[in-house]
Specification:
This protein has 321 residues and is α/β, with parallel strands linked by helices. It folds into 2 domains: 190 residues, D-Maltodextrin-Binding Protein, domain 2; 93 residues, Periplasmic binding protein-like II (D-Maltodextrin-Binding Protein, domain 2, 3-Layer(aba) Sandwich). The chain is built from 12 helices and 11 strands. The strands form 2 sheets. Strands 2-1-3-10-4-11 form a 6-stranded mixed β-sheet, with helices on both faces. Helix 1 runs antiparallel to helix 12 and helix 3 crosses helix 10. The radius of gyration is 20 Å and the shape is globular.
């Protein structure tokens, strides 16, 4: 399937934004009990910490407790599958990112992520490109030059992170090969140890190795520079129109009552706007967003076609979109 056909398919995936009213009575009495938030990662990780900060700040508006339930497994897709099987009554949400929308094509997942009801985006993950301290590449330009003499191997634990490297290759003719890892720490260690040529990963994983001198940050692969390293330019600032996109977002089951969706969305946006929450999101290495569900849809549509192509080239697609 060609890229334009896939983009057209995304544009017509109306089920994602379709929220069917199930009657005003349910919405008027909601919430009548506490709400559960499924987090597809273990406690203490970036997604978990962001989710807890936002959920706690939503509670005063909703006048209910939001109970965090960590549900790791199947690359965070176990939580999505559990949510999809839940009734659309507004008492269960889930954390979600770009990679979850690729699950139907790369795993045996049977759920349709496009059918979920989007609530909002808490923050965008700003990936960075780094190399080991013994790497001959001291800049992105030198890494590109290296990629014109050989295939540059790089690690990333998330397919969302690979987008900038794929774009960089297309723009320059350099050759880059993705080596998937099971986690961020592993991806960083592979690069720091010289087992691969580079790594593209989130700040939470890279900063400790950068601070120790084992890793050298060459560029921010996001729209903005890393706050911890403001002197390191983005790829765009260095002349390469390449960006990796991902986020920490919230979603609810398909066919959630539109009135309940709007109340959850309003509480979510208000929570993210609180200075202490915005500061916490930034501390965890994300760019605070606090935007509604429509932004979640936009971000996925923007990056999914490129990621599908990357997965196809890596032989990781089980099913074509």
């Amino acid at each position: 399937m060609e890229r334009r056909e896939f983009v057209a398919g995304l544009a017509t995936a109306g089920a994602f934004m379709a929220v069917v009213s199930r009657g005003g009575a349910q919405a008027q009495s909601w919430p009548a009990k506490d709400i559960e938030l499924l987090v597809g990662q273990g406690a203490g990780g970036t997604t978990d910490l962001v989710a807890r900060a936002v959920a706690t700040a939503m509670e005063p508006d909703l006048r209910r407790t939001i109970i965090i339930k960590n549900t790791p497994g199947a690359a965070s897709n176990a939580a999505i599958a559990q949510l999809v099987a839940s009734p659309p009554d507004g008492y269960r949400m889930v954390t979600i990112g770009v990679s979850n929308f690729l699950a139907p094509y790369t795993t045996d997942a049977t759920f349709d992520p496009w059918a979920l009801t989007p609530i909002g985006v808490a923050g965008e993950i700003v990936y960075g490109i780094g190399v080991g301290r013994n790497s001959p590449a001291k800049s992105i330009a030198e890494l590109v030059a290296l990629g014109k003499t050989k295939t540059v191997s790089y690690t990333s634990s998330a397919v969302a992170g690979t987008r900038a490297m794929a774009q960089l290759g297309k723009l320059t003719g350099a050759k880059f090969r993705w080596i998937p890892t099971t986690g961020g720490p592993e991806a960083v260690l592979q690069a720091a140890g010289g087992h691969v040529d580079a790594v593209i990963q989130a700040p939470a994983d890279m900063v400790p190795m950068i601070e120790s001198g084992e890793l050298r940050l060459l560029a921010s692969a996001g729209r903005v520079r890393w706050p911890a390293y403001p002197e390191v330019k983005t790829l765009i600032e260095q002349g390469y129109d390449a960006v990796s996109l991902s986020f920490v977002g919230f979603a609810a089951p398909p066919k959630l009552d539109v009135a309940i969706q709007k109340r959850l969305e309003a509480a979510f946006v208000a929570a993210c706007a609180k200075p202490e929450v915005s500061a916490a999101i930034a501390k965890f290495g994300l760019v605070p967003s606090g935007t509604p569900g429509s932004d979640l849809t936009r971000l996925v549509k923007e990056s999914a076609p490129d990621l599908i192509a990357i997965l196809s080239e890596a032989g990781m697609l089980k099913k074509k979109p």
